[in-house]
Automatic annotation (TrEMBL):
Residues 28-146 form the NlpC/P60 domain. It comes from Actinomadura livida. It holds the Pfam family NLPC_P60. This is NlpC/P60 domain-containing protein. Belongs to the peptidase C40 family.
Amino acid sequence: MKSLHLDRATLKQVKAYDRYRTRVAEQRKSAKKAIRFARKQIGKPYRWGAEGPGGYDCSGLAMAAWREAGVDIPRVTHAQYRQVKRKVKLKELKPGDLVFFRGRNHVGLYVEGGRYLHAPRTGETVRIDKLTKRRKRQFAGAVRPGAPEHKTWSPSVMELVEKIDRMSADQRTEEKPPDKERTPQNPPATDTAPKNDDSPEKSPERTPAKKAAPPGGPASSKPARSPKQTRPEPPPRVETPGGADFRPWAMYTGSTFEFLSAPGPEAV
């Protein structure tokens, strides 16, 4: 924000709008939880004065659903409408909103697509119904639990916050470390590279050759044993010449010649 050189008044508006939209996002998550809980109650009987878990009346179901979402609202319909600050028009309904009918004597939870979930009356069960023309004529208001009171924001403030969001996203992208597996200095691991169908997964095993027959004799009928099964014969010792020109280690030591015999295998 400092790089944008915002004055104190503008900065205050930006922070206020950011808090507002954060509360709106949190309310939408809570609304999904309330609807999810209410859907699980479908089929349970209407019981006057009940608030679950075996049965509900209309306001008891609304209270229990929002309580499950972490939002406390009053128990009866009139208090629910009065105490929830965010009022909503019929054409602005969103999932989770409480919809009131018949002088606010009945309430249901708006689902989506012009439908609402409610506990209708004695002898019936919790279900989802359509907002028919008759129901729309009975509409007596709606509220949005958990939402901040509606406020109109300046388009310039909203655009400024969106610009800050983009700047923050770009900065996070720049600070993100490069992919270690795909840099020129460190190519991807061989096991992540695509396999070639023509190349075998394992190199073919070396088949030991049969022992050659001695001159004038038959070849051996026994198969040659693998190196693991046979201990190799030690190589013959080579007598070191005593000549003064023989300097096998001189190139490594860089010193005046002193006879050093190369180590050989121990005699078996």
